[in-house]
Amino acid sequence: MAGFIKRYPLVTSTLAALVLVLALYFTGYTTPAQWIGTAYVAFIIVLTAIDMVKDIMRGHYGLDILAVVAMGAAIAVGEYIAAMIVVLMLTGGEALEDFAEARAARDLDALLKRAPVTAHRLESDAPDAAVVDIDVDEVQPGDLLLVKPAQVVPVDGELLTDEATFDESSLTGESLPVHRTAGDAIMSGSLNGERAVRLRATATAANSQYQQIIALVQQAEEAKAPTVRIADRYAVPFTVVSLIVAGLAWYLSGDPVRFAAVLVLATPCPLLIAAPVAFMGGMSAAARSGIIVKGGATLEALARAKAVAFDKTGTLSHGEPELVKVIPANGTPADDLLRLAASAEQYSSHVLARGIIDAALEDGLTLSASHDAEEIATNGVRATVDGRRVVIGKLAFVRAEDPSADSVPLEAGQTSVAMAIDGRFAGTLLLADKLRDNAAHTVDELRALGLTDVVMLTGDNRDTARALAGQAGIEDVHAELLPADKVDLVSRMQGPVIMVGDGVNDAPVLAAADVGIAMGARGSTAASESADAVIVRDDVERVVRAVEVGQHTYKVALTAIWIGIVLSLGLMVVAAFGHIPPVVGALTQEFVDLAAILYALRALTGGKRDVQPQLTRPTADLSRNTRVAESVS
Questions:
Q1: What domains can be seen in the chain, in order of their start residue?
Q2: Which residue out of 64, 143, 156, 311 is catalytically annotated?
């Protein structure tokens, strides 16, 4: 009780004043009751008017005018009890909104409540090693950790135990436990099964998957829904209509009480409360589907979006290209080409680098370090390796070193990396990245939802981009783009525009789009931070779910507002003919507010249906043995 009083002082004081006024009124002390009631309402009118002026100065107007006029009119005609009920409705709206939002936000809060705070660090890798409990923020990559049964994995790590079972539902939405074996990557936030397991930390807590999700959730909870933006569209005309109805009722009847009776039924609480409740419900529904939405404005933009742009690598494709062919040139040995390429690519953050490095290591090649390696964003790497100057990356980048560098024919899904050694073209590496199984279905579903303009924006070469885009059903392809080019293209598209990406180079365009959606399961922190929504599982079809939730939420919010407006207008007409006294009208308006809020909670359902996860993954067309054979030939 003390907590409620402290949190909602105006609600508490209004209830106390109303009880006192009613007690005086029903015991015959009507004059003191009127004086106390009138004085208290006048005090609230002053407070509301100050807030109203602040809103007008920010460009938001119309929401509190009716309340101020209604309270003032009720006092002027002696209906101080009705005026106090209006005050209770306004002040109680905040508490009612908090209650409804708490119900809507519980799925977001569930993530925060289970965040690990401690980790069990092993002092050595011996079977009987001592265990020390440390704060999760003290964990460093390389630390050996023990995760006990039914405990949450504290940081991202590599499983050392032969096999284990984890519940990843809080991260991916997949309800069934997943089986992992030694060497598998384990995400923080996964719930361990029935046996204790060991893992080696691969990231600090701040850089681990679960903690990043929690940070996104906190941003989402702090973000305000576009309540005023939606309400502004209706507040001014609703205010004007209400004042006209009230004025006509007074003019035609000659009774000023009719004016007050109409206005107490015209208070804008459905506009103020229903919309934020709906948007909080939509954010909750999105969280259950593995999508963290950072605010109600994002849901509104998703609902109205007409265009969507996709990055290719890691978004429409799996983002794990494998080396399938080494094509030496100018007498360069294939092994030298691959070894030097992998050595230079150690200093690149590009997704293609990993495939080249893995191939070299699997072939037993020893990589060398470089003291002057430099990555030129979106182009490639320059590095001195074993005294030799290596330039690797896009063909145009390598041609700046040797204009004779040749292109090679590509098959669907392949991309090429050119390389020069000591200023001379040395050869080409071919990598293959498969289109996601559900990419084409995702595009079809988005078009069915009204996003008719679907494009691909990628920095990859044009032939590869067109091949994968064709498989996905995308005709509009823009390839060989720099990050600034992507930003420019998105800014010129007819919006609102959704951009879906996952890499560091996608961060600028994600921020520039009306809605930036980051594939956050394996994507970069920069992309997640600049995006408006983050998909926390590696499933591009979640984009469809995000749009569905946005459209459903926006529709529910508008319908809830219209429920309040229509009911209020109907009751206002009845009151205009003298059939609803001011006190009864003020009480009736409370039920109008309740109806609008209850309908707004329908946003918790999230719309039509959930998207089933795609659990299968295609393998590369060419095996490693095939790739090695071709490199030697």
A1: 2-106+228-280+550-605 (no CATH), 117-150+156-202 (2.70.150.10), 288-318+435-548 (3.40.50.1000), 322-432 (3.40.1110.10)
A2: 311
Q: What is the tens place of the pLDDT at every residue in 175-229? A: 567 888 999 888 888 888 888 899 999 988 877 767 666 665 555 555 544 544 5
CA distance 423 to 344: 15
pTM of the model: 0.67
Under 8 Å between Cβ of 326 and 344: no
Strands across the sheet containing 185-186: 131-135, 118-122, 144-147, 197-201, 157-159, 185-186
Distance (Å, whole) CA 149 – CA 488: 51
> Is 514 one of the annotated active-site residues of the chain?
no
Tens of pLDDT, residue by residue over 21-65, are 899 988 889 899 889 989 998 998 888 888 777 777 766 555 567
Instruction: Tell me the range of 113-117, 309-313, 533-537 where mean pLDDT is highest.
Output: 309-313
Residue 593 CA to residue 93 CA, distance in Å, equals: 9
Amino acid at 527: A
Give the DSSP H or E segment for 234.
helix 227-253
Q: Is the peptide bond before 496 cis (omega within 30 degrees of 0)?
A: yes
Q: Which of 145, 146, 141, 137 is nearest to 116 (CA)?
A: 137
What element of type H or E holds 375? strand 374-376
